Amino acid sequence: MGACRGRGVGGVAWPDKAVEFVDRLRKGVAGKSGRIEPSCAVKRGLRRQFKKPDLKRIARTETAGSSTACRMGTACIKVTKYFLFLFNLLFFLLGAVILGFGVWILADKNSFISVLQTSSSSLQVGAYVSIGVGTVTMLMGLLGCIGAVNEVRCLLGLYFVFLLLILIAQVTVGVLFYFNSDKLKQEVGNMVMDIIRNYKVNASSSREESLQEAWDYVQAQVECCGWASFYNWTENWEIQNSTELLYPCSCEKVQEEDNQHIVKKGFCSNSTLDRNNPDDWPVHEEGCMEKVQTWLQENLAILLGVCVGVAVIELLGLLLSICLCRHIHSEDYSKVPKY
User: Contact at 8 Å (CB) between 268 and 252?
Assistant: First the structure.
């Protein structure tokens, strides 16, 4: 602002340009009413300084800017929505894997898992928990897909809450299994030794028969005998009290050309032996403990990998559901599909 040369209305100082403008205005020609009319130059200056703004152009500019922002926001919502749909589809499939794992534990009768699930109530409980978690996971994946595609905030909110609860439950179960792994190994060893001690040709119940058949299958397929070693079979009641020279048939060494995956059951006798010395048995000498533990670790590693994959997808689902909920401003229940 320039230096003040005069006083304006109310004692407010006027700048140089304002004083000059007033002087030019006063040099105009007086009109019929006696008022001083500004000169032509002053009128042109006034028109230039007080030109009416182009409201249409301003409106077009603002509309274009808002349209661009709106398109960007819509594109962001679409990307988030379809990413959430994709992750929930994977979530649904992994839930099916967990469900299948639990069903496999209960249905498999031809492997060591049959021995575990028949003898150990904790494994049966774990199988039912896996089936329940898998079923709920599949339902949550389906719920997330519907909520994402139709942009329904109530479904997305419900999906977020239940997904968070499932994630907490999975972490809790994993921690419990990790800190009880030694107890599980000890329980398995005691269980196998009970099977070996009480093994007999004519089982007293279908449960015992299933356990014996499962253990015969393990020894034949893994090519091992006993738990720690084949000497464990000397604790068997029938071998100790039999007048014949007996040894477990499922432990017998079989030539590769004769091995047709036929599992032998019961006890075999060898008339060529003059005494029942375990060192003379034609059986595998290595125990099944290390091989069974390796088998369990491999399968537990697969289960752990599946659980980690599910947890990662759950975290991504939580983040995407929050982002999508924040961009959906109002609930439109008309978008909920009707069946």
Answer: yes
Tell me if residue 262 falls in helix, strand or coil.
coil
**The overall pTM is greater than 0.85:** no
What is the C-alpha to C-alpha distance for residues 48 and 41, in angstroms, rounded to an integer? 11
Q: What is the pLDDT of residue 113?
A: 60
Domain ranges of the chain: 186-290
pLDDT at 56: 53
Angle between helices 289-327 and 206-222 (to 10 degrees): 100
Q: CA 264, CA 249: separation in Å to the nearest integer?
A: 6
CA 99 – CA 257 distance, rounded (Å)? 39
Residue 37 backbone dihedrals phi, psi, to 5 degrees: -90, 135
Q: Is the dihedral of CA 277, 279, 283, 289 positive or negative?
A: positive
What's the chain's average pLDDT? 72
In terms of phi and psi (left: phi > 0; alpha: psi -120 to 50; beta: otherwise), the region of 76 is alpha
Ramachandran bin of 34, using left for φ above 0, alpha for ψ from -120 to 50, beta for the remaining angles = left
Q: Identify the residue with better confidence: 327 or 64.
A: 327
CA-to-CA distance for 123 and 134, rounded, in angstroms? 16
pLDDT tens digits, residue range 139-169? 888 877 887 777 777 777 888 888 888 788 7
Residue 202 vs residues 65, 113, 149, 159, 230: alpha-carbon distances, Å: 87, 23, 61, 54, 22
**Can you tell me the distance from the alpha carbon of 144 to that of 155, in angstroms, rounded to the nearest whole number?**
7
With H, G, I as helix, E, B as strand and everything else as coil, classify residue 92: helix
Q: Say which DSSP state 283 is in.
A: B
> Do 234 and 240 touch, CB atoms closer than 8 A?
yes
Segment holding 182, helix H or strand E: helix 181-197
At residue 261, does pLDDT exceed 70?
A: no
